[in-house]
Design goal:
The chain has helices spanning about 10-25, 30-40, 55-60, 75-80, 165-170; strands spanning about 1-5, 45-55, 65-70, 80-90, 95-100, 110-120, 125-130, 135-140, 145-150, 155-160, 185-190. By secondary structure, the chain is α+β, with helices and mostly antiparallel strands. The chain contains 5 helices and 11 strands. The chain is globular.
Amino acid sequence: MRIRTRWAFGLLAAGALTAGMTAGASAAAPAPADIATAAVSAPTPSVSLTLAPSSAQLAGCMPRAKVDTEVELTTDTEGFDEFEIRAKGLPPKTAFTVFLLQQADSPFGAAEYIGDITSDRHGNARNEFKLIVQEAFSSTLVNGQRVRVDLNQVGMWFADPAGDDFCLGAGQGPVTPFDGDNEAGVQAFNSLGFAGLPAP
């Protein structure tokens, strides 16, 4: 997992303008529009991670699979974060569900269903979700006490119980509840080994 910032061209242009002004004593002050451009172009923090196949067997069946996610942490400015997921090397024309999780692998703990991706005939897939990611949590009662559980991991499931048949064999994989209709296949990818999103 790495944290990085993106710098918009406007901020660099504003810096170059400032440097040019200090070189000449008679230079004019920056116009209000230049100041506004610099303010809007502040860096946007983002977090990137790669999901790995959830088992050695699945990794062997999808040797070229790669699933990358990037989260632009914009809740403070936009009211939501932007979660983008890109994948290649997947089985073709296969749907997957995407979850934020308390724990990346079984028993998973609390989970939030955030969306789907479906591979094309080449095994490529992409989607973007707008939701709160960095501060995502589940609230529940434990022994009468309200407990907050942070959801700092990511998991992907085969959306259809038959979606994993190409690897596990027809009818050999369990039916899991990780889809809106309460019937999904096994977990396909997860963020196991990722320390979790940084605290806001």
